[in-house]
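#structure-requests
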Amino acid sequence: CLLLISKPSRLLSLSGKNPLNQDSVHFRLVKDFPAATLVHRLDFGTSGIMVVALNKSINGHLTRQFQKRTVVKRYKAILQAHVDGDDGVIDFPIAKDASLFPRLKICEASGKPALTRYRVEQRLDSPARTLVCFTPETGRTHQLRIHSQAIGHPVLGCDLYGDDISVGLADRLMLHAESLEFAHPKSGESVHAVCPCPFT
């Protein structure tokens, strides 16, 4: 009734309208699983675990869990420089802005609530970097990338929200969806799926 897959970095979740953007997680899956539908997405550069529904009722059940924010998502990321403190909460609303597309912005007036919890796992030197575990409470587009930028520590390899230094320190976006916890749509039992981080 569902699949748990590992998405590589530099692969779209869904195909774009441009024929050059046809290759995607969904495009590849429907060749073997014609009824497969995505319940959630990961950014092009983000790698890691995704849950895929294999029929409409399972999609609806899982989608409701994401909407109610009962799905626990954990990500690993390497951020530029050393983050102060060992844990914290980033609470900045995120808004669209046509003049910035494809980037989003922090905006108190028009943004939708976005909250990210983080925990420092390791501080690295030469150059200074920080390995963190993110637990987003909301699921806004680009949330972890724009929140990292907002606290002054962009994700390494992030071309949208980083600077020349942070982009130059990695050959990919250093953001990985490591685990998902949700209720199985049929049994109701708790599922804890893990996809080990490739850069830690």
